[in-house]
């Protein structure tokens, strides 16, 4: 398919990811956090693997790398972030999450040899400033201690995921890639939830209503599986840095959906932050897409197959 549809695919992925926050807030009225995420991952895995098996499945040569992707995100990333948020403030977690695009740009420059142009740096700076403004960062940010370190570890895992996905997406189709990712992510995350159920920290999902199950699986399939499917499709030809810039739209979409469905009212600072994030995409250079032929990419593959 033409590269021109890959950027809109990333924007749609950002829309789905951004909207997941509002719908998750609704779902948390009847679910506890870790249990909800486990059900979401399970529902997404079932739907993705059903599609893979109907189409016909052959194990890809890079299946170990796909398992690594799932372990990074949603596995390690979601586990670290959820655990960290039990030991730090939500505002600290939000501020730290805005560092993902910075991690991606720097790591891509080091490991993928992506050119760190002046406009790339400027776009990154505007985007990060917009995230801080949008989320209402306060000067009393407490620094990186305890739970903050766990959240930061999760964000770093998400950034590494972007790099590994960037070097994998041109070797396997998006559906297979996403199915393996979610299955391994679910299996990685399940022990955390079982531990919560055994210790009584959360209740096992035994008495939820049919509507609660529908909402949870709907978020897992619509907001998570579809967004990762779109992302895995697009990242094969879009630079990791540019992808990170576009995904900074997530909090913008999150605010808009919260306004529409949850009747929340954004303040002036939120509108300014949203405008800065959108503007950063236009600051970022337009020529950041990779060539059509995978062999033309100069960066060496990451040492992940068989090494982990």
From TrEMBL:
<feature type="transmembrane region" description="Helical">
    <location>
        <begin position="243"/>
        <end position="262"/>
    </location>
</feature>
<feature type="transmembrane region" description="Helical">
    <location>
        <begin position="268"/>
        <end position="284"/>
    </location>
</feature>
<feature type="region of interest" description="Disordered">
    <location>
        <begin position="288"/>
        <end position="308"/>
    </location>
</feature>
<dbReference type="InterPro" id="IPR037185">
    <property type="entry name" value="EmrE-like"/>
</dbReference>
<feature type="domain" description="EamA">
    <location>
        <begin position="147"/>
        <end position="283"/>
    </location>
</feature>
<feature type="transmembrane region" description="Helical">
    <location>
        <begin position="210"/>
        <end position="231"/>
    </location>
</feature>
<dbReference type="InterPro" id="IPR050638">
    <property type="entry name" value="AA-Vitamin_Transporters"/>
</dbReference>
<protein>
    <submittedName>
        <fullName>Drug/metabolite transporter (DMT)-like permease</fullName>
    </submittedName>
</protein>
<feature type="transmembrane region" description="Helical">
    <location>
        <begin position="31"/>
        <end position="54"/>
    </location>
</feature>
<feature type="transmembrane region" description="Helical">
    <location>
        <begin position="91"/>
        <end position="111"/>
    </location>
</feature>
<comment type="similarity">
    <text>Belongs to the EamA transporter family.</text>
</comment>
<feature type="domain" description="EamA">
    <location>
        <begin position="10"/>
        <end position="134"/>
    </location>
</feature>
<dbReference type="GO" id="GO:0016020">
    <property type="term" value="C:membrane"/>
</dbReference>
<feature type="transmembrane region" description="Helical">
    <location>
        <begin position="177"/>
        <end position="198"/>
    </location>
</feature>
<dbReference type="Pfam" id="PF00892">
    <property type="entry name" value="EamA"/>
</dbReference>
<keyword id="KW-0812">Transmembrane</keyword>
<dbReference type="InterPro" id="IPR000620">
    <property type="entry name" value="EamA_dom"/>
</dbReference>
<keyword id="KW-0472">Membrane</keyword>
<keyword id="KW-1133">Transmembrane helix</keyword>
<feature type="transmembrane region" description="Helical">
    <location>
        <begin position="66"/>
        <end position="85"/>
    </location>
</feature>
<feature type="transmembrane region" description="Helical">
    <location>
        <begin position="143"/>
        <end position="165"/>
    </location>
</feature>
<feature type="transmembrane region" description="Helical">
    <location>
        <begin position="116"/>
        <end position="137"/>
    </location>
</feature>
